[in-house]
Specification:
The protein contains two helices and eleven strands; from the N terminus they run ββββββαβββββα. The chain is α+β, with helices and mostly antiparallel strands. The protein has one domain (2-158): BH3618-like (Roll), CATH 2.30.290. The radius of gyration is 17 Å and the shape is globular. The N and C termini lie far apart (49 Å).
Length: 159
């Protein structure tokens, strides 16, 4: 299937598979009328794009939160798990919407309202968590730098 996109202001047509398509029920806040999206990976980058299939001008930059916050945990409410058709934890893809900035150190992720996509049913939703300790604008660069330093320290310690 082909999808039109204006990612980063560049108009193009991408070939996607049915496996990349997810239906949001309900729609994302502010975009309630747009329900079908494609999850598109970016070459050589952990960033993915959630591209609306109904409007080529609507896309969201996403990142798996565990890449920069390995301690990130939340409990998916039963009503959301049921609505998504989740049968086991491995059904879930968890992504956070990024707020991009030319200065990488100012890129943030919304940990308070993650997107949960079900691999099995291809249903998705944004879950608004009640945990006040989670940040709506968590710095990504700081978390990834800490992860990289931790990996380097582990390698140095084992050498």
């Amino acid at each position: 299937m082909q999808v039109r996109t204006n990612l980063m202001g560049v108009e193009e047509v991408l070939e996607i598979s049915e496996q990349q398509i997810f239906a949001f029920e309900p729609g994302l806040g502010g975009f309630e009328g747009l329900r079908r999206y494609a999850l598109i990976g970016e070459a050589d980058s952990p960033i993915e794009w959630l591209q609306s299939l109904d409007n080529p001008d609507v896309s969201f930059a996403l990142l798996e939160p565990f890449l920069f916050r390995p301690d990130y945990v939340f409990e998916l409410p039963d009503r959301d798990a049921e609505a998504l058709g989740m049968q086991e934890p491995s059904d879930a893809l968890v992504r956070c919407i990024l707020t991009l900035n030319e200065d990488a150190e100012k890129i943030t992720a919304n940990l308070l309202a993650p997107l949960v996509l079900c691999r099995r049913t291809h249903l998705a939703r944004q879950v608004i968590l009640q945990d006040q300790e989670l940040d709506m604008r968590a710095p990504v660069f700081v978390g990834m730098t800490a992860q990289e330093q931790g990996s380097t320290e582990q390698v140095a310690a084992s050498a």
